[in-house]
């Protein structure tokens, strides 16, 4: 399309204008830039978070599998586009990398994971508040956020996103230190809470979560209990409706069944392969298990006995190769004691485990320990030193036995399992690719060597926390060379190495053998076989593993392969628990919201299973303990609460469906419109510096003194390896937009060629052959939010006013600048009158919206004030009831002394009641003052500021 500078100025305005928070157009920039498939429920959730400019945040409570991370990403991306860039994400420690990768891959946002090491590095570099980052989203764990609460409090956050926010739902309990600390530290800042389980066991949990968003939605805990505690056991439709109405402004929940018409879900198919360890493998297991069950061990640091025992059991279950080196390291530690060298306590042992078992640091954080350690061998008695020598010899025996085992039964079973998996995959038309998860790097090496001998040589890629092997380094170097000059190369060696290995797996390799490092932060939709070679006891970790493949974009059913040791009763019960109670391996969605939400953290289950392994010595004891664990799990799932959740948090399907359809249509329309504008604006601006491929939306910037950013660019999704993804927030696009946003244009005549335009625009068709004047202005209104309105006024030479909604359509047809032009005062006056009328309409529209926002906020404050009064009045009512009872009892007393004593007690209660009444009036005054203060804060934002700025004036002619 032939454009003019006026097209460019108009497009620049549209691409940068600030829009009302309740419009889909608010998210247009984020939607255009995001590398995700558009799903309407995600747009709806993101819009909900922006719903009111007076809102303090939202709870996004979609069911598992609907992409709450994407919803939060859209909100973050839009805030970023608005230059509101102090953004914090608090998540469980094991999800931090995944968040960083999702932001990078889908929204082109750089993130900094703050932990002890990176925190100290920031301080050393001169940043005394490492949370204060100007160009990166900050990500940290719950524990780290709690430990650094003063820093959080002194950072002016534009947005805080809290993932797995159900961890904070008991914030109302005095003992919940992390939740209460985070609530206090983040109180003034807007927050988005993500959780699939906002309500699990009690309505008080919902009260707790809502209070983290906004303390003025409900009154205090006492008033909430007084009004709503009966709902759980005595459903009252009116109370339900009232509570639902109060929750709706802060919480939104979409169910999977509501979006099936938009999203295709594949299933999980579980296959279990049984194996029988050899006699020597079983002997090793029995000996080591008995050793770990000893009440005293000198090789395991007392301060971390439980944690070390857990890791030992995991390595033992993984392979004989994983555990053999561990015994040698334990021997080395005891040898130092025996030689009376300095006892280095945990240093040797810990550093070894950190290298061998990659999840060690995270387990250490999650488990913690309470035991005190001995720190020097001089504390041992002679008898104890004899025991140390005996243990030293025993560990050597274990090591020799482990080293003598050359074949592992589970390893041999793996090759057969893979062949079966590939056949099943082939039936479904899926690529023959499998990811194998192990918890040990030594087992990873063993499996690579084993499968290499079984016909997979050259088809295997390894993935772990360091990726320091020669093959991985070679893959990385090839990947860097192939992707030089594209968006894929981030400059972070760690992130780029991970991307290189994933690409290698996708394009060339057939099998990825991975440690737990691959269970987070990478997406493997192209792979549909997940092998749990080692089975974690934490169900959330298993869900993360399978979720690498069973996620958005997966086209095929995902095959989940597990292994079962038939000579181990505890292993069989663990598998049964994970399979039947957690539903991890079969079905469309995997682990249920209800069960995972109940356990708070998979660490709870892991601890209990570890305790069973450690304490039970017979099959009967094992079965009895697992039966109790299953009963405990079932008891914690409250069926009545499921009904309550449905009543309070879920909307009618018809209502949801209609909203989703509207959002889907509007979103697609805005994406198409904005991409079209950005493409045409770029093409016009860089016509002398770049070559353009309109069909594929690709352009290449050639070396030029005018443009400093060069390369091949692709607008939209699916950029090739050598291409940059072009988007609104790309530095080159920002340069182009800024050039025209700030351009000052003279008044000229513009010829619009409607005849050669392929589109039919009926309003313009009637203007062919006519001419007149056109003026674009920008009306900026600052009130509860910043908004820009296009004021488009146009007239014909005959004085006919062209409808305002038709005027922008002029700029969707070919045009060229003809010559300078100068309007008469009459035309200028007419255009000014039309502009003023349009401005008045926009002012009224803005004020109407602000009135609605204000009414909603004031109603919330009214409810809050009423709640606080209810709390005080309940205390009085309780006293009245007690006085009434005492009087009734006093009337029955016949003995004078007792009767006087009873009347004295009644008088004291009446005195206490009078004092409480007085306090009630004082408290009501205080509540009114608080309400007035909040009202004043809202009113201070109500005064609208506005400014009208001319964009350009032209004489138009249409042929």
Automatic annotation (TrEMBL):
- PROSITE patterns annotated for this entry? HELICASE_ATP_BIND_1, HELICASE_CTER
- Helicase C-terminal domain residues: 417-603
Q: Name one GO molecular function term.
A: helicase activity
Q: Where is the Helicase ATP-binding domain?
A: 49-216
Keywords assigned by UniProt?
A: ATP-binding, Coiled coil, Helicase, Hydrolase, Nucleotide-binding
Is Acetylation there in the keyword field? no
Q: Where are the transmembrane segments?
A: none
User: Does Cytoplasm count among this protein's keywords?
Assistant: no
Tell me which stretches of the chain form a coiled coil.
Answer: 869-948
Q: Pfam families, per this entry?
A: Helicase_C, SNF2-rel_dom
This chain's protein is named Helicase SNF2
Specify the species: Mongoliitalea lutea
């Amino acid at each position: 399309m032939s454009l003019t500078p006026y097209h460019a100025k108009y497009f620049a305005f549209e691409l940068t204008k600030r829009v009302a928070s309740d419009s889909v157009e608010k998210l247009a920039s984020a939607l255009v830039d995001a590398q995700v498939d558009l799903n309407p429920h995600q747009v709806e959730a993101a819009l909900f978070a922006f719903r009111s400019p007076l809102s303090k945040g939202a709870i996004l409570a979609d069911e598992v599998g609907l992409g709450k991370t994407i919803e939060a990403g859209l909100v973050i991306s839009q805030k970023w586009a608005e230059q509101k860039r102090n953004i914090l994400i608090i998540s469980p420690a094991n999800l931090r990398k995944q968040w960083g990768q999702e932001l990078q891959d889908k929204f082109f946002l750089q993130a900094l994971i703050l932990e002890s090491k990176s925190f100290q590095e920031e301080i050393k570099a001169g940043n005394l508040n490492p949370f204060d980052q100007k160009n990166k989203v900050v990500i940290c764990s719950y524990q780290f956020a709690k430990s650094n609460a003063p820093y959080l409090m002194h950072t002016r956050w534009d947005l805080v996103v809290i993932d797995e926010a159900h961890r904070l739902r008991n914030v109302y309990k005095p003992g919940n230190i992390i939740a209460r600390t985070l609530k206090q530290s983040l109180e003034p800042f807007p927050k988005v809470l993500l959780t699939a389980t906002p309500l699990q066991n009690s309505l008080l949990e919902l009260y707790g979560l809502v209070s983290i968003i906004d303390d003025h939605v409900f009154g205090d805990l006492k008033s909430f209990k007084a009004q709503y505690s009966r709902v759980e056991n005595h459903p009252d439709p009116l109370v339900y409706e009232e509570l639902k109405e109060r929750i709706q402004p802060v919480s939104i929940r979409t169910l999977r069944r509501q979006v099936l018409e938009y999203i295709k879900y594949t299933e999980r198919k579980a296959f279990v392969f049984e194996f029988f360890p050899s006699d020597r493998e079983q002997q090793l297991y029995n000996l080591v298990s008995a050793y770990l069950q000893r009440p005293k061990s000198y090789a395991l640091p007392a301060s971390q006995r439980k944690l070390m025992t857990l890791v030992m059991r995991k390595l033992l279950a993984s392979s004989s190769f994983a555990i053999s080196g561990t015994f040698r390291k334990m021997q080395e530690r005891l040898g130092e004691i025996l030689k009376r060298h300095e006892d280095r306590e945990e240093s040797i042992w810990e550093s070894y485990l950190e290298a061998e078992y990659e999840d060690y640091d995270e387990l250490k954080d999650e488990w913690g320990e309470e035991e005190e350690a001995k720190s020097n061998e001089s504390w041992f008695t002679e008898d104890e030193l004899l025991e140390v020598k005996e243990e030293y010899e025993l560990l050597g025996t274990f090591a020799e036995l482990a080293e003598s085992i050359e074949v592992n039964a589970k390893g041999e079973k793996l090759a057969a399992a893979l062949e079966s998996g590939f056949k099943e995959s082939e039936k479904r038309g899926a690529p023959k690719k499998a990811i194998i998860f192990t918890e040990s790097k030594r087992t990873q090496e063993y499996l690579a060597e084993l499968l290499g001998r079984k016909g997979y040589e050259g088809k295997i890629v390894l993935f772990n926390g360091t990726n320091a092997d020669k093959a991985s380094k070679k893959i990385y170097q090839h990947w860097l060379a192939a992707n030089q000059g594209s968006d894929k190369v981030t400059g972070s060696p760690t992130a780029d190495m991970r991307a290189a290995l994933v690409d290698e797996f996708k394009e060339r390799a057939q099998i990825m053998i991975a440690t737990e490092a691959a269970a987070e932060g990478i997406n493997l939709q192209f792979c549909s076989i997940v092998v749990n070679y080692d089975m974690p006891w934490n169900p959330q970790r298993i869900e993360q593993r399978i979720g690498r493949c069973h996620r958005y974009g997966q086209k095929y059913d995902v095959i989940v392969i597990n292994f079962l040791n038939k000579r181990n009763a505890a292993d069989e019960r663990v598998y049964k628990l994970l399979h039947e109670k957690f539903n991890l391996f079969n079905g469309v969605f995997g682990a249920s919201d209800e069960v995972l939400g109940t356990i708070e953290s998979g660490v709870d289950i892991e601890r209990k299973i570890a305790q069973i392994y450690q304490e039970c010595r017979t099959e009967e004891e094992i079965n009895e303990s697992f039966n109790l664990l299953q009963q405990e799990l079932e008891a914690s799932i409250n069926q009545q609460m499921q009904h309550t959740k449905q009543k309070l948090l879920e909307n009618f399907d018809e209502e949801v469906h209609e909203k989703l359809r509207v959002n889907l249509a509007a979103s697609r329309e805005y994406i198409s419109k904005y991409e079209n504008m950005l493409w045409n604006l770029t093409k016009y601006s860089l016509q002398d510096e770049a070559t353009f491929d309109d069909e594929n939306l690709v352009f290449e910037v050639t070396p030029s003194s005018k443009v400093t950013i060069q390369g091949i660019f692709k607008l939209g999704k699916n950029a090739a390896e050598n291409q940059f993804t072009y988007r609104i927030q790309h530095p080159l696009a920002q340069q182009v937009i800024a050039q025209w946003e700030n351009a000052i244009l003279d008044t000229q005549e513009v010829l619009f060629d409607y005849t050669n335009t392929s589109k039919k625009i009926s309003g313009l068709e009637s203007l062919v052959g006519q001419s007149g004047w056109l003026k674009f202005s920008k009306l900026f209104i600052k009130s509860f939010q910043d908004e820009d309105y296009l004021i488009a006024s146009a007239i014909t030479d005959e004085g006919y006013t062209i409808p305002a909604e038709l005027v922008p359509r002029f700029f969707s047809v070919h045009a060229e600048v003809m010559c300078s032009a100068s309007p008469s005062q009459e035309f200028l006056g007419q255009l000014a009158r039309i502009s003023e009328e349009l401005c008045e309409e926009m002012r009224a529209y803005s004020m109407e919206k602000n009135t609605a926002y204000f009414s909603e906020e004031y109603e919330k404050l009214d409810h809050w004030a009423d709640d606080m009064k209810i709390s005080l009045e309940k205390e009085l009512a309780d006293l009245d009831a007690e006085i009434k009872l005492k009087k009734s009892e006093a009337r029955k007393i016949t003995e004078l002394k007792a009767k006087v004593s009873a009347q004295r007690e009644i008088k004291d209660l009446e005195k206490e009641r009078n004092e409480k009444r007085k306090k009630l009036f004082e408290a009501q005054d205080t509540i009114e003052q608080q309400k007035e203060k909040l009202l004043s804060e809202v009113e201070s934002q109500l005064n609208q500021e506005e400014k009208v700025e001319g964009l350009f004036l032209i004489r138009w002619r249409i042929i």
